[in-house]
Amino acid sequence: MDLAALTPAQIRSLDLQGAENARIMLIALCCLTLYEYLITLDDEMKYFWTGAWNASRILFLLNRYIPPAISILGLICFSLPHPSPEFCKRGVQSLFVAGVVSLGIVQAMLVIRVWYLFASSRATRLAMITAFVGVNVLSLYFSFRVASSLIIMPSLTDTVLHVPGCRATRPDKFWRMYLPSLVLHTLLYCLTAFRALKNRRMFKQAPILKRLLRDGGFFYLVVFMSILFTTIGSFLEDVPTVNVPAIFSSFPIATTSIAASRVMLSIHSLAAKLGSDEAWLLNNVELSRVPWRPGATEGEIIVDRAMTYEDDEMDDWCTEESHTGSVVSLKMSRVGRWTDETW
Questions:
Q1: 276 and 161, same structural domain?
Q2: Residue 90, phi-psi category: left (phi > 0), alpha (psi -120 to 50), beta (remainder)
Q3: Cα-based angle 276, 280, 283 (whole degrees, multiple of 5)
Q4: Membrane-crossing residues (predicted)?
């Protein structure tokens, strides 16, 4: 669409439609967040409202409540009948900066998750922390630049369509705020996939790695699609009906927050079934290399193995060599070790 070929009245009408689309998206995101909160509140109370405080718990609660506050602030900014220019400028600037901070919280949650998976690799941990710090510093820098260049414009009223709320100029190169985050999420998912697929022979029978790869893939898809929408929309300056919602609706913030909460609840649910915590579950990498199933009592893990003897594949801690060169099927749990005769 070539805006130069349109009349001022047509351009104004498109701007109003874009602002209305952004407001509708904010309402939809608020409703989605509220629905997600209500259906997962029981799990949140079960896994995060009790117990010792740690980084994982703090980050989860921050991610749980900061993004909804951002959506509500955005809805207020773009719904008030006659907001003052000062309120609009501070409010919209806060939306941009708080959005980057919210994404940083989600990234910290994932970094901790992957951190446990590479307990024996200091180089991987160092590279991951360096990337996390660099990405967030860069994103904050771009968010402050976008916020400082923001210009509040007078409200527009059309004879047919009236859209209340703040009206601001569309920032140039808005996509730069989110591109570093996409790079970091790609790195974290690649590390998770590498850890899960490192031992392909046992992957199909390793439920922990299956859960990590499945949840990580789902989360990465949400992040990729959300940032892709925002990036493409920010380029479409001649299509205000798409460009304005992509910039001002905080769409990636709400979607990634919901997806991250689901991932955290999923891993804590699995840890609870095994009678352990998240750190133990992710740190015990040897557990991820063997097929296991829950035992008869809470917290008990049973490992069944039966395979042909191979020197480079046999794990001494969970196998016994027979006189015929084969491996006797064993059953193990966190509380002991049994042979078939004693089971």
A1: yes
A2: alpha
A3: 155
A4: 22-41, 62-82, 94-119, 126-144, 177-197, 218-236, 242-265
* Number of separate domains in the chain: 2
| CA dist., res. 341 & res. 209, Å (int) | 30
CA dist list (Å): 165 to 73, 81, 271: 12, 6, 46
Residues 118 and 169 in one domain: yes
Q: Which residues pair with 338 in a beta bridge?
A: 331
Length of the chain measured in residues: 343
Handedness of CA 303, 309, 315, 317 (dihedral sign): positive
In terms of domains, do 212 and 332 share one?
no
pLDDT tens string 134-161 = 999 999 999 999 999 988 887 655 445 5
* Best CA proximity match to 161, nearest among 13, 6, 9, 5: 13
In a domain, 300, yes or no: yes
Residue 343 lies in a domain: no
C-beta separation of 191 from 114 below 8 A:
yes
191, part of any domain = yes
Q: What is the pTM assigned to this prediction?
A: 0.76
218 and 72 fall within a common domain? yes
> In b/e form, how buried is each residue of 176-185, taking b as 16+ CB within 10 angstroms?
bbbbbbbebb
Domain that holds residue 310: 292-338
Please check whether residue 332 is in contact with residue 301, taking contact to mean a CB–CB distance below 8 angstroms.
yes
Question: Which residues have CB under 8 Å from 305's CB, separation 6+?
Answer: 290, 291, 318, 319, 327, 329, 330
Residue 154 lies in a domain: yes
